[in-house]
């Protein structure tokens, strides 16, 4: 065989092997078309900024002109501007730390007329199961049965008409052992049945490696009007929540956090329905307004809530074939009490006349009390309170 023929044969064999490798290679998630989808989505949700602040944890916080934030992509808000704060707010017990965040530790904030928005990266979206599901929960509200691997330890009231809720909760850094699990503590304002018409408004703190790419506890919000199917999202990841505050970034890391047998740090959250316009407002601490969910986003919540919940939630993926080690709250059971267990204190609801009231007829629910449990109490300083949480997998939780 001539030298030329040997070269030709080698080339043909090489190309044949290369073609075979391409045919047998698994399809990579980050294909060209998928990356194109991701970048189109990023262009939609990352708005032009007038200033960018880099956080010590690596977050980029964009200062976006308030009427150009994602909410105003909604057809019913296009061309409008954020509303002025409501003149009357529910009055009641106030005693909680003002929340501070890592990105603002330098005391550099966004200018007036802008809102701070955590910039979403390609990696953030690529961690999601799909571009369409990015920023969305799977079904996970506690009712009669667990769903989707979600487990809860919650206190709730129902059987009345509720126009809001308020509580203070301490912030921890629970261990999340699987990248597709999360651990959160929040309050839920709920209406509708627990079928496909479920409406919820949610706010609190969460550790979610899938959503944020790290294990910091972060301030978050959520809403849905169809039981987490096609509507709603976390934070500002879709057109929905209208932010009005220029010093708090939804989705940004909270600092400081509580420590076991050490100093406790808590944040106060209130969600209530403005009697004049019907929108649901979010307030932190003793009076820091964050923004509102327009009433038109909802069906049942255009009227009032029928249930309010306070407590913790985790996802148990059982990816190793047994119950997750993901912690809820502090990672310790409710019985350990102050300084060791996670708590909610001064639990209150808002009535039809915009008054904050203590709870009556409080119910407790723990899906797996050997994994995560809950206890309630009442005193003159904390009013209604709960301790909740746990370590996940242990001798009694397999």
Describe what you observe in this structure.
- Helix content is 11%, strand content 31%.
- The strands form three sheets. Strands 5, 10, 11, 12, 13, 15, 16, 18 and 19 form a nine-stranded antiparallel sheet that branches. Strands 9-8-7-6-14-4-17 form a seven-stranded antiparallel sheet, with no helix packed on it.
- With 398 residues, the chain is mainly beta.
- It has helices at 3-24, 32-45, 122-126, 209-212, and strands spanning 51-54, 60-65, 114-118, 150-162, 164-170, 183-191, 199-207, 218-224, 233-234, 242-243, 266-273, 280-284, 288-293, 305-315, 342-350, 356-358, 363-366, 373-379, 383-389.
- The chain has one domain.
- Strand 12 (280-284) and strand 13 (288-293) form a beta hairpin.
Task: Map the helices and strands.
Layout (H helix, E strand, L loop, with lengths): L2 H22 L7 H14 L5 E4 L5 E6 L48 E5 L3 H5 L23 E13 L1 E7 L12 E9 L7 E9 L1 H4 L5 E7 L8 E2 L7 E2 L22 E8 L6 E5 L3 E6 L11 E11 L26 E9 L5 E3 L4 E4 L6 E7 L3 E7 L9
Antiparallel strand pairs: 1-2, 2-3, 4-14, 4-17, 5-11, 5-15, 6-7, 6-14, 7-8, 8-9, 10-13, 11-12, 12-13, 15-16, 15-19, 18-19
């Amino acid at each position: 065989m001539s030298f030329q023929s040997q070269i030709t044969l080698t080339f043909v064999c090489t190309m044949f092997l290369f073609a075979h490798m391409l045919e047998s290679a698994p399809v990579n998630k980050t294909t060209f078309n998928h990356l194109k989808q991701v970048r189109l989505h990023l262009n939609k949700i990352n708005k032009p900024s007038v200033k960018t602040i880099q956080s010590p944890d690596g977050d980029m916080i964009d200062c976006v002109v308030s009427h150009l934030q994602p909410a105003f992509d909604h057809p019913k808000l296009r061309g409008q501007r954020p509303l002025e704060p409501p003149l009357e707010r529910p009055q009641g017990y106030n005693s909680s730390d003002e929340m501070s965040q890592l990105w603002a530790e330098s005391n550099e904030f966004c200018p007036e007329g802008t809102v701070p928005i955590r910039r979403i990266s390609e990696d953030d979206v690529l961690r999601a199961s799909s571009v369409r599901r990015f920023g969305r929960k799977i079904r996970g509200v506690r009712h009669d049965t667990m769903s989707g691997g979600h487990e809860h330890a919650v206190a709730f009231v129902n059987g009345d008409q509720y126009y809001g809720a308020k509580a203070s909760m301490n912030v921890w850094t629970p261990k999340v052992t699987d990248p597709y699990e999360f651990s959160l503590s929040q309050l839920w304002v709920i209406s509708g049945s627990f079928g496909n018409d479920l409406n919820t408004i949610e706010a609190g703190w969460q550790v979610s490696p899938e959503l944020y790419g790290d294990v910091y506890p972060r301030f978050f919000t959520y809403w849905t009007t169809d039981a987490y199917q096609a509507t709603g999202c976390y934070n500002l990841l879709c057109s929905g929540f209208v932010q009005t505050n220029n010093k708090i970034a939804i989705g940004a890391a909270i600092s400081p956090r509580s420590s076991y047998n050490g100093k406790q740090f808590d944040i106060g959250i209130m969600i209530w329905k403005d009697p004049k316009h019907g929108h649901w407002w979010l307030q932190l601490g003793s009076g820091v307004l964050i923004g509102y969910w327009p009433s038109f986003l909802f069906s049942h919540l255009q009227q009032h809530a029928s249930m309010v919940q306070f407590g913790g939630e985790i996802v148990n993926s059982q990816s190793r074939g047994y119950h997750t080690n993901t912690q809820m709250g502090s990672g310790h059971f409710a019985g350990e009490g102050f300084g060791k267990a996670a708590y909610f204190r001064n639990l209150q609801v808002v009535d039809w006349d915009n008054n904050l009231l203590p709870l009556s007829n409080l119910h407790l629910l723990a899906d797996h009390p050997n994994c995560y449990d809950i206890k309630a109490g009442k005193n003159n300083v904390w009013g209604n309170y709960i301790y909740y949480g746990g370590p996940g997998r242990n001798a009694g939780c397999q």
